[in-house]
Amino acid sequence: MAQADQNELRARFLQEAAHLLAISSPVTSAFLGSARNRLIEDTEIEVPSKETDAFRREICGACGNVMIPGWSCKTSSRTPSIGPRTKEKNGTKEPTKLDKSIAYACLRCHRETVQTLQPKPRRQVRKTKTRVGPQPPAVLHTRESREEVDNIVPKTANAGSKERRKARKGGLQAMLAKNKTQMSGLGGLDLMDFAM
Description:
Layout: H1 2-20, H2 26-43, H3 49-58, E1 73-78, E2 86-87, E3 93-94, E4 101-106, E5 112-116, H4 143-152, H5 157-184
Antiparallel strand pairs: 1-4, 2-3, 4-5
Helix pairs in contact: 1-2
């Protein structure tokens, strides 16, 4: 157990050292990155798949070069072309699932690392039932009855955004007023006061 912890610490140290030396000494950085790769393979350290994917994006698997997009690697996104449609049992055509991927091309050894992007989960739109409240009786509309009707009618989303806008505007005005009082506390000196 202690040996595994030491190996994990060594691997982390090599990875961080490779990142620190990526710009100042790319050759040394690449050597440290490949040493980290060998250490993980030789000691068979179990690395979570999420960390493995992140490491494959960061360091070239062939030469150990730290891949910085635009500096030491090129990135390109790939979308497979629309393939043939599959027929379902009921006869309708269902499009095949397309997986987008990103290709990282190392500029040192020209190896290409391709990683597929996980599709975003579909947003589920929940339908809310509109509640119909009791209808107010037909009464002569006086000022008081209008206020009661306004209180019964639920506020719309637009009204909420208006309230947020007013609150934001009020906050900005408060900040400007505070800034103005601080500036007046400095004695009211201006740049022109120092001109000769």
